[in-house]
Amino acid sequence: MTRAISLHDVSKSYAKGVRVVDRLSLDIEPGEFLVLLGPSGCGKSTVLRMIAGLEEIDEGELRLDGEWANDLPPSGRDMAMVFQNFALYPSMTSRDNIGFPLRIETPGEDPRPRVDATARMLGIEDLLDRLPAQLSGGERQRVAMGRAIARHPSAFLMDEPLSNLDAKLRNHLRAEITKLTRELGVTTVYVTHDQAEAMSLGDRVAVLRGGVLQQVGTPREVYALPRNVFVAAFIGTPRINLLRGLVRAPLDGAMTISLGKQYLRLPEPLSLDHQLLRVQQGREVIVGLRSEAVRIAKPASARPGEVLITGLVEHVEFQGHEVLVHFNTGSRPAVVPELESPRPLRRVRRRRREGGTVLERIRERAGALRAGPVVVLEDPADAEPEPSAEMVPPEGRLPGDLIVRTTPDIDLRQGMQVPLLVDIGHLFVFDQHGERICPAPARLPDLEE
Ligand SMILES: Nc1ncnc2c1ncn2[C@@H]1O[C@H](COP(=O)(O)OP(=O)(O)OP(=O)(O)O)[C@@H](O)[C@H]1O
Ligand SMILES: [Mg+2]
After folding, report:
1. Closest atom of ligand 1 to CA, residue 15
2. I need a labelling partner for 38 at 20 to 30 A (CA). Which of 95, 111, 168, 208 fits?
3. What residue ranges in 292-364 does DSSP mark as E strands?
4. Averaged pLDDT, 36-47
5. Spatial contact of 13 and 183, defined as CB atoms under 8 Å apart
6. Cβ(199)–Cβ(187) below 8 Å
7. What is the pLDDT of residue 364?
8. Locate the ABC transporter domain: which residues (predicted)?
9. Which residues contact 279 (CB under 8 A, 6 or more apart)?
10. What's the confidence (pLDDT) of residue 128?
């Protein structure tokens, strides 16, 4: 028994006027594993609690298997919730902790067979007679999971169930959760702020920002075709490189995207996507380069579609199986306010306030800007001066504007000037508000490639 969960234009406010969930629509298929992903405070738990019936829905509609369910009490929803802080009864053994809800739901029925079967599934048979105080954190979480599973609910709602555990155990339990939910075939909604966890667990991932759904898709889709700069920056490690660029499309010359001191020359004949970029002529855009789009190699080894830039090594981060090289290419990184450290955040806010329209200022005061554009770039006319010819980073700036992943056998040291080949086929371009314009939204490249 599993169920379809669908939300239609669902909103929720705690304080007047500030929506923490804003017109969210989401259709979760029976048996699907859907992950709600987003930074802290974006409304993930609130969405989950509305599905569970623990939080009232202000506006919009919740349907369970197509039936209107806004007012259905939690007990009538047949769902089991697993929280970050697994609450086990301290005076009960694992067996009783797992069996307790069964005794309440089906009085008169012997819970032992179900408890035993669940324990076998989770590999906790040996722990059944112990008290919670005699269990490790991971074991306790498994017992808590057992309590949810033994009930045979029609859906699991899990709110960061692994975030209190160490990395090794988290990975282990992640694999177990995947296996279990597949075996049980029960619809699961799983909340996390950890993108790697979301990508490894979900059939689909729904990315939230400030209570607003940004994108929902398979892990492959949200990685390969992020709808906006927020999704692009939130998903993937190392984080996608985001550089501020200027499109130059002269009528009689090659089309380029200027990156401050250097530029990317778009290979001819122009692809359909790049032809569409022409309308951005003279406008500032954001160029997104994932680490697989850039490689350190001799210019002569350039493959078709690769263009050359150079970078000054600022910092080499050794990671064992790979090395992350931080380069200064003389370009300016684009800032996604919610995902940055406090310093650039303040800078962007101030600019927005000074330069914003009356409407923007009102929306900001009303707290509605969280749902607005992901990033707002100023007009190129009042942009900062171009970086100096020596490509030396300004005082106080973080070293490097471009991070490239490479194998550990390359010997690179700070201060070296290195050729970089950029694969234009892997280029993302976002407009001034952070919406993806390249690859063009209408044209979906073959993801099977
Ligand atoms: N009972 C409440 N009263 C007032 N505001 C609340 C309440 N619960 C949550 N909020 C606010 O609503 C917003 C969304 O909260 P929510 O707990 O859904 O976020 P989240 O995405 O789960 O965050 P985290 O990853 O930190 O758990 C936050 O700004 C939070 O402060
Ligand atoms: Mg939460």
Report:
1. 4
2. 168
3. 294-296, 306-318, 323-328
4. 95
5. no
6. no
7. 44
8. 5-235
9. none
10. 96
More confident of the two residues 46 and 84: 46
Ligand 1, atom 27, lies closest to the CA of 40
Counting from 1 in the atom list of ligand 1, the atom nearest the Cα of 193 is 25
Distance CA 256, CA 249 (A): 7
Q: Which fold has domain 240-333+397-438?
A: OB fold (Dihydrolipoamide Acetyltransferase, E2P) (2.40.50)
Contacts of 49 (CB under 8 A, 6+ apart): 55
pTM: 0.85
Domain boundaries of the chain, sorted by first residue: 5-229, 240-333+397-438, 337-373
Query: Which amino acid is it at 343?
Result: R
Tokens of 213: 């759904």
φ and ψ of 372, to 5 deg = -85, -160
> Please, which pLDDT band fits residue 170 given cuts at 50, 70 and 90?
confident
Tokens of 25: 């629509």
- Label the pairing between strands 67-68 and 59-64: antiparallel
Element (H, E) at 156: strand 155-159
Span 35-54, mean pLDDT?
Answer: 96
Residue type, 51: I
Contact yes or no for 297/421 (Cβ under 8 A): yes
DSSP letter for 116, please: H
Ligand nearest to the backbone CA of 12:
1
CA of 340 to the centre of ligand 1 (A): 20
Check pLDDT > 70 for residue 398: no
User: CA angle, corner 20, sides to 15 and 25, nearest 5?
Assistant: 135
Report pLDDT digits (tens) over 247-297. Answer: 999 988 899 999 988 999 999 888 888 988 999 999 999 999 998 899 999
Condensed to tens digits (0 to 9), the pLDDT of residues 347-368 reads 334 344 444 555 554 444 443 3
Question: What is the Å distance from ligand 2's center to 92 Cα?
Answer: 28
Residue 356 parent element (H or E): none
Q: 48 alpha carbon to ligand 1 midpoint, in Å?
A: 11
CATH class of 5-229: alpha beta
Question: Which of ligand 1's atoms lies nearest the C-alpha of 208?
Answer: 21
Instruction: Report the side by side order of strands in the sheet with 402-406.
Output: 294-296, 417-423, 306-318, 323-328, 402-406
